[in-house]
Design goal:
heterodimer; A: 226 residues; alpha/beta; Rossmann fold; Arc Repressor Mutant, subunit A; 2 domains; six-stranded parallel beta sheet; 10 helices; B: 139 residues; five-stranded parallel beta sheet; 6 helices; 44% helix
């Protein structure tokens, strides 16, 4: 039987190295690549088409939520397993709605990760118990209120607007954002205006606060050392 | 040959287990314990008296910087504490130095850097700083 191919997407190098070392002990799992940001994750996934992407959420340039959305748009057969330090509802609900197959919090034991990779590869869902319990609770409450689909979030932004929003929140100027995305400054300005209108937020500080509050970036992602 | 005993402190199990797996390749370094919060770290440090403690900052019950303060009061100075954190702000580095850490690494570092920092901390070298911060200061 061919092993499960895995891409590790995590911005902390030492954590990636550790995860790779742990998964080495699993005979049916092979780590085929590692990436340190969401954009690199997209490129490597398109190139290598791994069975499973183990995805962190808080990553520079493009966060794990938007990377998940774009991967599943292009390659819907890819199984995404989120491995994040955060279990906030905003993160969990967004990525599960996008089609991720699993969500583990980093407090989980290592053997749980290997088992979750196998489960999502088989098309099953794998959630940390604390998340599973909370999702069920929220779903029951939402059904009782009859507003399961009425929630407002950033999902009405296009993929490009989400990318521009993250780069603005990371402190990038329009020119840097244009270079990063391979588009013109004028197009960046257009996306910026459009997302500001949609969110009804009209200054950079407000956008940054919004990006942090909704989990698009972590406050500490703005500074990168080593 | 020098033999360095290490206590790993991080609330995220895959990180602890991953670091343990990676450090296994270093013949002069032995992981003697793991703790998942600051309280446990203080208890294990007092009991095991490791040569070096690799300490995360953001942890439940007691954060890493507060744990270092307590460890400095309860454990001999021969035990060095090396912070390994995802926080890269200089304020955290300075706080760590002020409470008695022997060095500070960010989790963007690679395994070789960590192993070298553990050896340097054990040798009682001067405060170990994140490389890029050092580069900025030398400009």
């Amino acid at each position: 039987m061919s092993p499960i191919t895995v891409l590790l997407a995590e911005d902390h190098l030492i954590v990636r190295e550790g995860l790779r070392a742990l998964l080495k002990a699993e005979a049916d799992i092979v780590v085929v690549a590692e990436s340190g940001n969401g954009r690199q994750t997209l490129e490597l996934t398109r190139e290598l088409k791994p069975d499973v992407v183990v995805m962190d959420i808080a990553m520079p340039l493009l966060n794990g939520i938007e990377a998940t959305r774009q991967i599943l748009d292009d390659l819907p057969e890819t199984k995404i397993l989120i491995l994040s330090a955060h279990s906030d509802d905003a993160y969990v609900e967004q990525v599960m709605a996008l089609g991720a197959k699993g969500y583990l919090i980093k407090q989980s034991a290592a053997h749980v990760l290997a088992e979750a990779i196998r489960r999502v590869h088989q098309g099953k869902t794998s959630l940390s118990p604390v998340i599973s319990k909370r999702l069920n609770h929220h779903e029951r409450k939402a059904r009782a209120r009859g507003d399961l689909h009425a929630k407002k979030d950033a999902s009405h932004l296009s993929s490009r607007e989400m990318e521009v929003l993250q780069l603005i929140a990371e402190g990038k100027a329009n020119k840097e954002t244009a270079d990063e995305l391979g588009i013109s400054v004028k197009t960046v300005e257009k996306h910026r205006q459009s997302l500001m209108d949609k969110l009804d937020i009209h200054d950079t500080a407000g956008l940054t606060r919004y990006a942090i509050a909704t989990g698009i970036i972590e406050s500490s992602v703005q500074v990168t050392i080593i | 040959m020098t033999h360095i005993t290490v206590l790993l402190v991080d609330d995220q199990a895959p990180i602890r287990e991953g670091l343990r797996a990676l450090l296994k390749a270093e013949t002069d370094i032995e992981v003697v314990g793991e703790a998942e919060n600051g309280h446990q770290a203080v208890g294990f440090a007092s009991k095991l008296i490791p040569d070096v403690i690799v300490m995360d900052i953001a942890m439940p019950l007691l954060d890493g910087l507060s744990a270092i303060e307590r460890i400095r009061e309860a454990v001999p100075a021969s035990t060095k504490v090396l912070v390994l954190s995802s926080h890269s702000d200089e304020a955290y580095v300075q706080h760590a130095e002020a409470v008695g850490a022997a060095g500070y690494l960010v989790k963007h570092s690679d395994m070789h850097t960590l192993a070298a920092a553990i050896r340097d901390a054990h040798k009682d070298k001067s405060f170990i700083r994140p490389r890029k911060l050092l580069a900025i200061e030398s400009l």
